[in-house]
């Protein structure tokens, strides 16, 4: 295969019923100059997909985890640009074309990456919600630690399209992160690379009840603490955003049953910025009629 313009990398593990749809969406892009790389992370039954001239499959004999599997795909990629697609999600047909057009027309100094909007869909394909990214985070910013524009969301990081060499230069994905892999990556990426946000939906995030790393309570808490510890100086330099970040983590912990961790993180958020967090707590309690979260509640 000659070197394509874009490599679409799909890590997968034990989800053959889902990855087939992800691969189909990647191969059905409106631009032709691309390759699709599926990295099978030691599935119990190795993935078997119909052959296609633009498709490559890499089988790993030992588990590498989400970050490690992405790094294997990154090293194997031939494209000048790369993007990553989770095996339970889908790209809309124009994703590659829209992203690369924005990158080719930008006047920003290189390097520049692009993200775009996504929609959350249920198994029936019904749209449950949409998210659009902030318009731009210039090189030297710290992405989700910066103040967010109204109506925008930082949770579209899955749509990243970036030069392969730029991603390799910053060290690729952190193999030690089991969850929060995108958040960790962007804290290293934005200081070295401007990030454009497009107000266009290009990605479908699947909302299903199957297994997800992000729903694993233990991994979620461990990865959160690892992320904060690794980038402690950055978080401390953005106390308001840091407090909100810890508060949202506490709220999610409570939702998935980690009540002790929820209480601990809630207290942590209050210590960082009580003037911001206390009104948030009071507002939620007033709206829901809930009691304050305590370890034994």
Structure description:
With 297 residues, this protein is α/β, with parallel strands linked by helices. The chain folds into 2 domains: 6-206, Spore Coat Polysaccharide Biosynthesis Protein SpsA, Chain A; 213-288, no CATH class. The chain has 10 helices and 10 strands. It has helices spanning 16-27, 65-76, 95-105, 164-169, 181-189, 217-230, 232-237, 239-255, 259-272, 274-288, and strands at 6-12, 34-41, 55-60, 81-84, 90-91, 112-121, 127-131, 136-137, 161-163, 194-206. The strands form 2 sheets. The chain has a 5-stranded mixed beta sheet with strand order 3-2-1-4-9, with helices on both faces. Strands 5, 6, 7, 8 and 10 form a 5-stranded mixed beta sheet that branches. Strand 6 (112-121) and strand 7 form a beta hairpin. Helix 8 packs antiparallel against helix 9 and helix 9 crosses helix 10 (274-288). The longest helix is centred in the C-terminal third of the chain and has 17 residues, at 239-255. The N and C termini lie far apart (59 Å). Residues 291-297 have low confidence and may be disordered.
Set down the secondary structure blueprint:
Elements: E1 6-12, H1 16-27, E2 34-41, E3 55-60, H2 65-76, E4 81-84, E5 90-91, H3 95-105, E6 112-121, E7 127-131, E8 136-137, E9 161-163, H4 164-169, H5 181-189, E10 194-206, H6 217-230, H7 232-237, H8 239-255, H9 259-272, H10 274-288
Parallel strand pairs: 1-2, 1-4, 2-3, 6-10
Antiparallel strand pairs: 4-9, 5-10, 6-7, 8-10
Helix pairs in contact: 8-9, 9-10
